[in-house]
Write a structure and sequence with these properties.
- By secondary structure, the protein is an alpha/beta fold.
- It is 25% helix and 25% strand.
- The protein starts with a helix and ends in a 15-residue tail after the last strand.
- 46% of the residues are buried.
Length: 983
């Protein structure tokens, strides 16, 4: 009989999930179409449409009907769900389910040569662009992972191959282990996926940076249009697939609020509204996130508290990292309150089991439960353009979970998860909840039994008085099995009677003697005049600062009218030094300079005994960026540092403390033709857009010397051209000749393929973009000036230029400026001839000379670097000071806006405690556009506040550990110090 039943069940399963038009040769062909009705349940048809005492009718994997009064056909299986709740199963918008990510192949041999060209023929020129990838080609249903998903309440996943910058199609899969791919694959082209990360399937070098990835995406979109318009001579399967996928949902993996803004920037340029995978830190810059108008997919892998029991280790944890643990659970609530559309994902969770726990935490921190349910059902369904998932409307898939209570209540049990009408048991619905405290009576002895847990995982502890006894407990198939070790073993078998309040059964001692036993549930009597329960303590959520790290501003400083009185003013103009002088800054500009100035509305700063100068300008910096080099090609004119400006860099604040107000963030020196610059004002707390100069002059970084010919890159990097200094010259000639021909074609009106790299170089030829060139050796300095003159343009600035003193006359004749170090020499072979008198010699030749840092530490004391030119070369104080103010402003073509104290210029000034060239001078106030961004007195307050906040957070983490919460050991973090040669 059992064999017959097994055969019948297998036959039914086969009949339900085999294609209806397929022939069968193993028996009689028939179809099993069972109808099931679930009655007396609370049914969430959608998060907003809720039916109490309702009926859900399903057939053939779909919802046949739902409502309070539903006609139930004859022969229907009826399941009574009195007291239970039915929800639509969840949807994971961003998964890798069933698709294994390729493993990075190890180098086949020591010192393996880099790969610069694509390996695939007939595809795009870059291997990391793979829109032709089809998820279904590598998909294999994962029963184990499906079980994990089902236990967490999920019924559908949107999965893809998580590899590459453009990753191809994803697929929508029902988590139905009882079916076949013919039924459970709901859509095999659900979305197109993108990211900033390269593919592990190729070792092609380009891009090596995020700005390179952004430039590559831009060029890809331009090439796709060129191809779609029928202009390409070759067949490109990647571009064909990219164009074919244009109508699909475009999902971009960002992973942080800053990368969300970067991805959205690309989308806006090409009129594409990405749906973006975030990182859970969107709360830090919620206004900017809201302005993207993007729908987000949010992971909820919250940071665990740090184990801070070791005070020496705890002291090293940055405030921002401590804050993240405290603030991160508010993220979903903040998104919801700001009207941002978002779905949820298990992405990056180590265990799917943690998903609901983390979501419950988010709800505790303010997330509305209805919004949480939307983010798992109707919102992902709408984003995917599917009306038959994420709800229980008539005609939708019968994907639903049955629970004991509210789905986001920690005490709730998920009993079953039905997918496409197939039942998946998570916890046996028939197992009674017998948790509680009982008194056992057996053989004249009394014991306490405490039962905790859920469903089949209910466990028991036995005590005799206050002593905990060794015991084993199980509750299965309605029967209790309990063994007690108390001066011998006593085994109890019994069952529950009388609505779970009484247990009865048979006891067996060690000799096998039988006797009866019983247990009754104990209820705590409520005390008369019992005081009302105390309210739960409010959660302590620490405020967000901008940026959200130590020394950040809790509110952005405001522009003010500022009157500085009675100061010694170094103008960096022909006026020289003005004693006992007032400066009025109004509406961000220097409005008046003179004596006895008055302004009722102004904030007055007493400048008596103080010095006031224009803000320092660093012509060559690598702070405030997430990347410095794109090293994948010998020319990367298409990349831009503006794409990777990082407003969170603490070095912005540190530079303000050194009196720096503006910097040029330069690309590094990994290639002869590098990337475009970003010129920013150090407006601490502002977003990227607020930092970058409006109508900024256009600059690009070139480089000469050891770095570009890879002399110091190791033995394996010997195949990229150039490998010699004379090869470097040919790179310039080749690229400028190509740019000249490109520009001519563009101006002719004939069709042309837009090339971002060539566009940038053409701007140089047309004198619309300026070159700042990394340089050391006189022969190469001469070479590049000759190349420029051959193509009828000028080099704007030679930076470093440590042999500039040898060719100062030729530099003057060419019209190039110099931005150099004060006293660096002999730190590598090509600077053996450097001398500290270099700056003064070039200045005396009539060259505009600036002193730069190229270093996050040196940039904080450029005032002292400028002072060294007095020792080495006999510069006057004023001329020395100009080397960090008006001279770099001239080199950056900003001298009409900043760099000196002059009426009408930007209010970028510094109040110093002493002569600014003194090693004892401190920047007391650093003002940009009439806003005080650094104040030495407030800095003291900030340090005190940081100490207090860290103490509070450490105390909270210690408390978390003492309460048994999960903690992790802090990991050592180091912020990379970018230089020209950082790869």
């Amino acid at each position: 009989m059992r064999k017959l039943l097994l055969f019948f069940s297998l036959f039914v399963a086969f009949s339900m999930h085999s294609q209806e038009y397929f022939p069968t040769n193993t028996g009689v062909k028939s179809t099993f179409n069972k109808t099931v009705a679930f009655k007396n349940a609370t049914i969430y048809v959608t998060p907003q449409k809720i039916i109490t005492k309702g009926i859900l009718l399903i057939k053939e994997g779909k919802v046949l009907s739902v409502g309070k009064s539903v006609s139930i056909p004859k022969g229907t299986e009826i399941i009574d769900l009195e007291g239970k709740i039915i929800y639509p199963s969840f949807i994971d918008m961003y998964a890798s389910f069933g698709i294994e990510k390729p493993k990075k192949s190890p180098s086949s041999r020591r010192n393996e040569k880099p790969q610069y060209d694509a390996t695939r023929k007939g595809f795009y020129w870059n291997d990391h662009i793979r829109p032709e990838t089809k998820a279904e080609n590598s998909f294999k249903f994962d029963d184990k992972k499906a079980t994990d998903y089902l236990k967490a309440g999920f019924g559908v996943v949107n999965t893809h191959l998580q590899d590459g910058i453009v990753r191809g199609n994803g697929m929508l899969v029902a988590l139905n282990p009882n079916s076949s791919d013919a039924y459970r694959i709901l859509e095999n082209s659900s979305a197109q996926y993108l990211s900033f990360s390269k593919s592990t399937l190729s070792k092609q070098a380009y891009p090596t940076s995020k700005m390179g990835a952004m430039a590559l995406l831009r060029q890809m979109y331009l090439d796709a249009k060129w191809y779609a318009d029928g202009n390409a001579k070759n067949k490109d399967q990647s571009l064909e697939a990219l164009n074919a996928n244009k109508s699909l949902l475009q999902i971009f993996e960002a992973g942080s609020w800053l990368d969300i803004l970067r991805a959205d920037k690309i989308g806006d340029e090409f009129n594409i509204q990405y749906t973006i995978l975030g990182g859970g830190d969107e709360y830090e810059r919620i206004d900017e996130i809201k302005n993207t108008n993007a729908s987000l997919i949010i992971p909820i892998n919250f940071q665990d508290a740090y184990d801070v029991s070791n005070p020496l280790i705890a002291k090293q944890i940055a405030l921002g990292d401590l804050r993240r643990w405290n603030q991160q659970p508010t993220n979903l609530s903040v998104l919801a309150k700001n009207g941002i559309n978002f779905a949820l994902t298990t992405h990056k969770l180590k265990k799917t089991d943690d998903f609901l726990k983390n979501l419950q935490k988010a709800i505790k921190y303010g997330l509305n439960e209805e919004k949480a349910l939307e983010a798992l059902t109707t919102i992902p369904a709408k984003l995917l353009g599917k009306t038959t998932i994420g709800n229980l409307n008539k005609g939708s898939y019968a994907n639903f979970i049955i629970t004991s209570g509210a789905i986001f209540d920690s005490k709730t049990t998920i009993y079953e998860n039905w997918v496409q009408g197939d039942k998946n048991v998570v916890n046996d619905m028939d197992i009674k909840d017998i948790t509680g405290d009982y008194t056992i009576s057996v053989n004249g002895k009394y014991y306490s039994l405490i039962i905790t847990g859920k469903g089949a995982k209910q466990t028991g502890v036995v005590k005799k008085g206050d002593e905990k006894l060794k015991a084993t407990f199980s509750f299965k198939d309605g029967r209790i099995h309990l063994t007690i070790n108390d001066e011998g073993y006593t085994r109890l078998i019994g069952q529950i009677i009388n609505a779970s309040n009484v247990m009865q059964g048979t006891a067996y001692d060690e000799a096998g003697n039988e006797s009866g036993w019983s247990a009754s549930k104990t209820f705590k009597k409520e005390a008369k005049n019992k005081e009302p329960k105390k309210k739960k303590e409010d959660l302590t959520i620490l405020p967000i600062s901008y940026p959200n790290i130590g020394f950040g501003n809790f509110s952005l400083p405001k522009q003010e009218t500022i009157l500085i009185k009675n100061a010694t003013v170094w103008t960096s103009e022909n006026d020289g030094i003005l004693e006992n002088t007032d400066i009025l800054i109004k509406e961000g500009k220097i409005a008046e300079i003179g004596k006895n100035l008055k302004s009722r509305a102004a904030k007055t700063i007493d400048g008596t005994g103080k010095y006031v100068t224009a803000g320092i300008i660093d012509e060559h910096s690598h702070i405030a960026t997430s990347a410095v080099n794109e090293a994948g090609h010998n020319s990367t004119a298409e990349v831009s540092i503006e794409d990777v400006v990082n407003p969170n860099d603490i070095n912005i604040y540190r530079n303000l403390a050194g009196g720096v107000t503006s910097i040029q963030i330069l690309h590094g020196s990994a290639n002869p033709i590098g990337g475009r610059s970003a010129i920013i004002k150090l407006k601490w707390g502002e977003n990227v857009e607020g930092l970058i100069y409006k109508n900024s002059p256009k600059f690009i970084k070139f480089a000469l010397g050891e770095n570009v010919k890879q002399s110091n890159w190791g033995e394996s990097n010997t195949i990229r051209f150039p490998q010699t200094r004379m090869g470097t010259e040919q790179v310039f000639i080749d690229y400028f000749q190509r740019a000249k021909e490109y520009d001519a074609l563009k101006k002719s009106g004939k069709p042309y393929r837009k090339d971002i790299e060539m566009e940038t170089l053409a701007e140089i030829l047309n004198k619309e973009r300026f070159i700042s060139c990394h340089s050391y050796v006189q022969s190469e300095i001469n070479m590049l000036m000759k190349v420029a003159e051959k193509f009828n343009f000028n080099i704007n600035t030679f930076t470093h230029i440590l042999e500039g003193y040898k060719v100062a006359d030729k530099m003057k004749e060419h019209g190039v400026g110099a931005s150099t170090f004060s006293d660096w020499w002999a730190y590598k072979y090509e600077v053996l001839d450097a001398i500290p008198y270099n700056a003064a010699i070039m200045h005396n030749q009539g060259i505009t000379v600036a002193i730069n840092s190229d270093d996050r530490e040196m940039s904080r004391r450029l005032n002292q670097e400028a002072a060294k030119t007095i020792k080495y070369g006999g510069m006057s104080e004023l001329e020395a000071w100009k080397m960090v103010t008006i001279n770099p402003a001239k080199l950056l073509h900003l001298d009409n806006r900043t760099g000196s104290i002059k009426i009408g210029k930007d209010g970028d000034v510094v109040v110093w405690s002493a002569n600014p060239l003194s090693i004892y001078a401190k920047a007391e106030k650093t003002i940009i556009d009439g806003v005080i961004y650094f104040d030495i007195e407030k800095d003291v307050e900030k340090r005190k506040s940081i100490k207090e906040e860290k103490s509070k957070l450490l105390k909270m983490m210690l408390s978390e550990k003492m309460k048994g919460g999960k903690t992790v050991m802090p990991k050592k973090k180091s912020n990379q110090n970018f230089h020209c040669d950082t790869l």
